Predict the 3D structure of the following.
Amino acid sequence: MPDIRIDLYSDTLSLPTPEMRRFACFAPVGDEQKGEDPSVNELQEMVAEMLGKEDAVFLPSGTMCNQIGLAVHCRPGDVILLDRTAHPLIAESGGTAILAAATAYPIDGPNGMFTPEQVRALMFPPSRYRPTMRVVSIEQTVNAPGGRIWPLEQLRDVCGVAHEWGLGTHMDGARLFNASVASGIDVADYAATLDSVWIDLSKGLGAPVGAVLAGSREFIEEAWQWKQRIGGAMRQAGIIAAAGIHALRHHVTRLAEDHENARRLALQVAEIPGLEIDLASVETNIVRFEISGLDISHTEFARRLEEEEGVRVSTPGTFLRAVTYLDISESDVDEAAAAIRRLARRTRSG
Ligand SMILES: Cc1ncc(COP(=O)(O)O)c(C=O)c1O
């Protein structure tokens, strides 16, 4: 395995800080299934309050939040409307077909953000022929197009159409705090029009494990039943929930540094001949760029960048993606940009 000096693969690589480890180490714990883990309870209350919801449940992963959230919304045969690039559709092993027993219907939203008109065009009066459109699922930020932020108005309008037609609304808030810090809009304002919303603790926030799903008391009660059913209910989970509490106390506002570093990287990439980047697309901590001006495929470029320069990026599509997070400094970003520049130069000269 090559020695990776700077890893821009994903913010999921963020490591727990020494302070976080110390805090988690001495956290009070108990049996979370019985509601007796003080740290889990504190984290759930904290997230419910931050998101302006009645209740919340701590889960092992964001994927489980999506799966359980959507399963609570749906009955077998229902339809989930979501963007074509949405995580439950492309990266959760078809779980919604098994757990929610629902069909996921993809919408092609510009930059992963579909419009109220696109949702309205899919609404029909109830019919014995048509499946029931049950829930609209939204990702904030939108991962695939590069951490793009749903504008609040558009979000409200899309949810408005969904509610008008009796559909529920769900938010995959894996990077909701990134959206909030970048836009200055409170997470509770984004969450207000959503029936269910979750946040991930193990991405930009830097906790090692976990995510929290929030909604009405009734919704969360049913989510607990799903958590139990699929083996997500834990015991002394406070030891990991505490890391989440620490993350929410200390790592939210600092996401702005990740956004500045992403912008810093993007500006340097924009100067490299052969590389193409839409600077306006860099709204949070994800930088997407193409190498259409070089005589090499993007996957080969990423492989060589890792092997020859020790810089890892990902290639989730026909582009390269670099993500900034807690462990990536300004100088890491400068070094990564210099490595990309060197490789681009070597590639151009054959
Ligand atoms: C947008 C989005 N949703 C959901 C997930 C799943 O989160 P987890 O890895 O915690 O299961 C991810 C993970 O990268 C993601 O980017």
